[in-house]
Amino acid sequence: MRRLIPIALFLPLLVGCGNRNLILTVDILSFMDPSTRVVNYGPIPSGFPVDTVEVFSDSLNLLQGVGDVTRVASASLDIAASFDNTTGAGTGDVLIYFAAADSATPFTTTAIADVPFQLLAGQVTNVSTHIDASPALAEVLTHDRAKVGLRLIFNGTSFPIQGTETLTKLTATVVMKKDL
Amino acid sequence: MMKAGSVAIAVALCATLAGTAAGQTLDARRLGMGGVLTSDVGDHTGSNIAFRAVPKGTGGSGSIPLPLGLIQYLSDHPSFDSKDSTFNVYEIANVFLNPPLTIQLSKPSEVSGDISVYVAQDSLMVDLADVKRVIPEHSFKQGGVYHIGGIGKSFGRMFIQVSPLIHLRNELTLSDKLRDALKDAVPFTSNTRYGLTDEGRAQAAVSFQAGYAFRALHKASASESNSNDPRRNGSTALYLGGAPKYLLGIAYGDVHSIAGVTTGDTLFASGNPVTIDMDTQTRNALAGGDGGTGTGFGSDVGAVLYFQNFELGVGLNDFGSQIKWNTTVRRHVYDDVTNSFTTTVIARDEKFTSRIPVTTTVNVAKRIGRTTLAADVVKGDLRTSMHAGAEFWFGMIALRSGIYRDQNKMMQFAGGGGYRFGKLGLDLAIATNSRNIERERGAELSASLSLY
Description:
The complex is a heterodimer of chains A (180) and B (452). Chain A has five helices and seven strands, in the order H-E-H-H-E-E-H-E-E-E-H-E. By secondary structure, chain A is an alpha+beta fold. The longest helix of chain A has 11 residues, at 6-16. With 452 residues, chain B is mainly β. Chain B has helices spanning 2-18, 28-32, 69-75, 89-97, 176-183, and strands at 62-66, 103-106, 115-120, 123-127, 140-147, 151-155, 158-174, 193-219, 236-263, 274-286, 294-307, 310-335, 340-355, 359-368, 371-379, 384-394, 397-405, 411-421, 424-433, 442-451. In chain B, the strands form two sheets. Chain B has an 18-stranded antiparallel beta sheet that branches. Chain B has a two-stranded antiparallel ribbon with strand order 3-4. In chain B, helix 1 (2-18) crosses helix 4. The radius of gyration of chain B is 26 Å and the shape is globular. Chain A binds chain B through residues 1-8, 11, 13-27, 30-31, 61, 63, 69, 175, 178-180, and chain B through 3, 6-7, 9-10, 13-14, 82, 85-90, 110-124, 126, 128-131, 134, 181, 188, 194, 261, 263, 267-274, 276.
């Protein structure tokens, strides 16, 4: 995606044509491999009350050039996931990581989102959250590439824990101001 | 420096988006009559060469603009500092499109609001919000023929004149898909070309002109002994004028460009998701450079007939005006694979004849006592405008009103008044216009002195 959408490069100029913001909404989920949106977890047997599953780590191609003439005023993230838990029970956390493209792994950074969840056997659990004003997110989203990672942490109370996690929403919104 | 460049580009872009920019009428008397033109209102000699031969009447012989708008501008002008929170390139562009020589009574709300872009792997939607107002339904056209200043001397019915002449024309057309995406926020789709074409031309010359205007036909009226003004003495008279001109071409350039972006199967896929195409052909000549100077001839011709205080005038400026050049033709093609331009010289010293578009002015007027009713149609290179107005004198006080169809095909309204002090008059006019990037109606107050 070397040149991405050249039209997008036209936009910062328009942002300069007036006292306004450029509100960039990126459906990050759509850029991810569909297979990475769904992960089968478990079976987590008893004896492992805390288990970690790294769902994916992927590189994203973002809008290059936007950062050249704009500065980020704010950034936010909307995330939603669905757990179809077949057996076991427990609580847990969905952790989202963003890192610069040259990072070896996004998991070495501090998670920018932590979404708690609770699982019961035979139930579907939907979780979602909105993260506002994340400087780390703002930083990576104004570069043309970034890495994103998703990690699940399970705190089991009934075993074995097994099911399917589906990431249903991952949308970043960046508000940029002109910087001509 | 980069930022200054960005601002300059943004201003230029905004000015381009503005499309047409018509000249201001600084003559408040003419403006109050809707910008109408007659042999004694407005441009007395510029639009119809035959007006030169018509005796000076009671209707005035010239005007001196009073640029009161400068006071308003100095007290409240847009910020030119891009770091200023109030910085708005559209406001700056409007300063150029609508020079602050008149007092702005009302102006369109400034282009503001946030721009929203939604990006997914196979979806891109751009909502320009308020900026949509700037994008016209059809192509962006701008330009005109400009006779700037010059010096001249009259010898009775004859005159000679030397003046610069500049012709500019640019027409930028967005493809339907691109216009829909920008103006109506229609999502960009895969396997679609979003293109634009640009046709531009600029030429500059020095005009050496000699002219002759005279009364060709005359039938005296009973009241002619009291006044020699054919506008009001009821006589029948035909005045003709002609002014051939030699044109020394200084520079010529034109560009014909086609460019576009074609999306792939997926808008934001890996690799190169879009294919860029651009094919531009240029032709140029320049005094002291490629091709040297050009030479050509042209003319201004006109006629005006008076019959029972009715006036009918037809003026053709730059009639048959052409300039012959020795041009260099180049083609610039963008290679999407190598991400570079290839320039090929197609021809050197190729003979080319450029045309200066004719400007046709047809005016009618009827004087009834001290009342003047008038209308005109002015057809130029890019647009046709129409004006109609009236002037009523009550002693030393004049009342005026008028309407006109402007360059944006909008009806505008005008009114004003004046007071005459002997050989001098003070005129005020309020008129609407759409000389702004939003192409929306605003109102201005103009002031000038009339010479009688």
